[in-house]
Amino acid sequence: MTILPTTLAARFEPGSNLKDGAAGAAWSFLLPSLELGHVLCLGEPPETSLATLARLARALTVCTDDRRARDRLAAVADRQGWREVRIADLDAAGRLAAGSVDLAWPLTGGYRLHGERLAAFLSPLLSREGLVYLEGRGPRSWRLDGAFLGALGRRGAESLLLRLSPAAGEVRSAIPLGDRATARHLVRRDLAGPLVAAPFGRVGRRLLERAPARGVLDSLAERIVPRAGAIVATHPDPDGALAAGPPRYLRRIAAEASIDLRGARWGLSARGRYNSQKVLFVLLGGVEGLVKMTRTPDLGPRLANESAALGKLAALGVIGAERAPRLLFHGRHAGLEVVGESLAGGTPFRKRSRWTADCPYLADAVEWLAELGAASVQWAEPNRVAAALGALLERFSATYRPTAAEEAFLAAQVQAIAAADTPFPLVFQHGDPGTWNLIVRPDGRVAFLDWEAAEPLGMPLWDLFYLLRSFAVSGARAGRIGDPLEAYARRVLAEAPLGRLLVDAVGRHCQRIGIARRYVEPLFHLCWMHRALKEATRLEPAALGQGHYLRLLHLGMARRQAPTLARLFTGRAEGTPRPAGAPAA
Hints:
single chain, 21 helices, disordered C terminus
């Protein structure tokens, strides 16, 4: 079997997953099907939404009387090579063939008609299964065009009314209007979008979390409708395209696994600002679960890996349902992976932790990682492990262009593993055990979510190193230490409780899993090399040198004499000499 198969199969192209680069039009996931025919936009859609619709639709027509907007959109379409996109003025929409439009999106301010006149204009253009998506926008974003919806209703249309957030910008969450219980669940699990668009939403949340009444924001978010929306089916089908529960395509995929989602309550969460972050459907009532979908087809392997990982976890036989989700179903629709999992009940880790080294939830998470490692260990020849790590080093060097001294230091770590005469323990690795992927269950045990980066033959200690780094940095933010690197140096590398916890935890992991102590230092440095390689996708090529994990790698290389690392690597105190090739602080 391949060592580190998930990592070695991934591409780490700098700038390929930038912040605020998430695909738009998340509301499209609410449609009965994502396999769209002809889509008509009346007005200028955001470029991120345009990209999603251009990918999903067989043909896309955008009509606006704003000449500058037409020029902008035409330039975008030309740059992206969207041959199926047509940009025209509003009069062109009236010349479309009757019954040729499968989805119409009238954007506020982008068309001259409203109410019954808009309904009369669109009705002849819509196909037999035609849909309309509508949003409230502007100062009264919580209100919809009631006259328009009423006119379509009198023509036999069915409407699904939605609570959307934030009040402006791309949709980040959607819940059927009036479903307060689902809204409450999303808010308390940090899955609901902000009430208002960033940056005010982030600032407002931070201010309220520091106030004595921390529940104020959650209470408001459960009750306020930041923006209203509606999906209208002009000719409802007998299958109940809108009102029978989650979208039809999800019900059909689940039905193939003998799971009936008809009538289930649901809420959509698309909070992430990176394209790699998933679109989520929370299912409540009857079947309780979480459905994950990729935003674009190229990210499908990550979600397929999570599905496989959950299956392998269950096969281990020692991992209880309270520690990780259970796989419910896995399918594909419109080129996108769709994975359904059991819904892990609990509270986000950040809402329960005290962010100190004696945090009982951190202790539980650390011990469970040791249990997972001991239950899954497989032994390998050191030279095979070194070959996989050497391949990562080659990719790291090609991406970051380290100095000769830095590359020599990392090569020495790989060689230290290759030259060992002790079998190397490979473990089932979560791959991304940051505190944001942990929840605290009602019984106090910690569950691990988001297994898309899992490695069935992964490196021991990497999950532990990463978990404690994320804990140190998150706790420092709560204590107002702004620089993550400074937080790690002060809370872990220096003489500090978290540093002592790291040393003790590594010792227990080595004992339980059977890790030879000679492997600890190479694993520590190569962990951050691996993280830097993954981080490259979130950095512009010109900013690679400023990446957090590259700087963390350099910090560990230069400060091997720090109290924690001295004990971790050699058992000696302050003053351990640096090896040749290690950069100075």
